[in-house]
Amino acid sequence: MTQLTIEIKDRKTLKLIEDLADLKLIRVLKKKAKEGERKLSDRLAGTLTLSQAKELDRELKKMRKEWERGT
User: Fold this and answer.
1) Is residue 70 helix, strand or coil?
2) What residues have CB less than 8 Å from 5, skipping those under 6 apart?
3) Where does residue 26 rank: exposed (0-12), middle (13-18), buried (19+ CB within 10 A)?
4) What average pLDDT does this structure show over 9-19?
């Protein structure tokens, strides 16, 4: 038997996999990935929307200018 490691990105996909398991076509072996195994950038990717990232960038630039002004 071939074993694959997959990442589920959608509830519908998980339901489909569970249906395949119910039909005895596949067997699901649940194993949580260790957080230390993945790069930090991979773990955090997609946690901010584009608009949130732009707003954060604007705020950071504003704070940096205020810091430089005081010195």
Assistant:
1) coil
2) 31
3) middle
4) 91
Reported confidence tier of residue 18, pLDDT bands at 50, 70, 90: very high
Q: How crowded is residue 20: how many other Cβ atoms within 10 Å of its Cβ?
A: 13
Residues 17/9, Cβ–Cβ less than 8 Å: no
Burial 39-55 (b: 16+ CB within 10 A, else e): eeeeeeeeeeeeeeeee
- Chain segment 39-66, per-residue pLDDT in tens: 888 878 888 889 999 999 999 999 998 8
Residue written as token pair 């260790």: 34
Compute the Cα dihedral for 51, 53, 55, 61 and give only its sign: negative
Supply the DSSP symbol for 46: T
Residue owning tokens 């504003």? 62
pTM given for the model: 0.41
